[in-house]
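Item description
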Amino acid sequence: MRRNVGIGAINKQRLAREKLAQKGNEIAELQLMQVSQQMDVFKKSLEEFAMKYKNEIKKNPEFRARFQVMCSKIGVDPLASSKGFWAQLLGVGDFYYELGVQIVEVCLATRPTNGGIITMEDLVVRLGKSSGKTRKDVQPDDVFRAIGKLAVLGDGFKIVKVGKENLVQSVPGELTMDHTTALDYSHHLAMVNTYALKKTLRSLATPYFVLNIVASLLHPISRFTPGLCEMIGDSCNLDFYEVEIYFFVICVVAIKNRRCVSVESYLSTFFLFAKAGAAILFYKMNIQLSIWYIVLCIVLMVTVRTPSFEESAEMKYFVDDTLPQQLKNDTETIWVVEFYTTFSPHCNAVKPIFGALSREFTHEYMKFGKCDVLKSHGVPESYGISSSCLKTELPAIIIFEDGKPAARVKQTNNGKQYLMSYENLKRDLLMQEFYNKAVEKSKKIKPESKKKK
């Protein structure tokens, strides 16, 4: 058999490669032509669509947002410039720039009262009241896009997310951790002042938090401290198992704390799972270290108490069947009762919230109390609250009027979790309405008592 060797074979291979390259170029040109034709058809259809729904695009904010998304997929921004075909076709080329000017005017006008940070909801309302028909249909999505166009002005205008709310910042400079803490505090409790912030920060400097932070971080401290890591282990480097446990603890803490209402509750959850992870890792290193660490955690739990939170001086604690007796004997008073248990992290998280409510709304005819479900067998069930740890209904808060439940909230209801923040409880429990009833009741009863005298 003759083999393809020599100059002739090389030339044949070169010609074959050239033909393949030529064929590939022809296919690429054909595909490019087909794509160009498809884009021309799409552009024509888009132009016809824009002409047909021109008024809807200009006036309907939801329709405008969907049209913007559809155009952005092919790299077209029809509402962003006053030049070109789209601006002439739609007549809204300067829409976002005009809206940006309106945003600047509103932010400058309100800066003396809000310090340059305004909520998205308030900004949209104020834009709706400004001049111009198009401003009446402004939506948060339009504000997001307009502020994006203002980025050319520098760092003065940006959107900051605090909790679930978007704030528009109109002052230059980055928000520090102090600013973010203050905003987050006010977001959860619907109020903020210097005294409350100082008190919250001081509470984190108590022995309970300091010692528990050290205990929670004891394993990484022992693994990364030179000299100490060689004494208790083979090396100062983490192995795959330890890294896996660390990531698992971080994920669990993040999931558990996604609905936290305070820094204290976040840290409490972190302490619980960080200590559990550290105990497992110490056991892997040395069983004696694990035993000593568990003993240390038990000693901390017994000797160092959780910081107490201020509450109304008239707060009453119910045990056994004292709550039903109190409601039966005192029907004139509106009672706000929290059903709780001491070992529940959710109940511990609501302590400062419930304490703040009691300080604000306690009245002669509106009082606050707490009922420990473990010391009041059968009482929670009589009011439709399960004390079982499997159902996670605790904490639960019930307002009693004339001795009967008038309003209630629970940690979970029909499988859905409820965020027990100060603002939510105040709104959903109708605290202000019940407080007004208590004030009216005191006005009626006092004149009657004077007449009897």
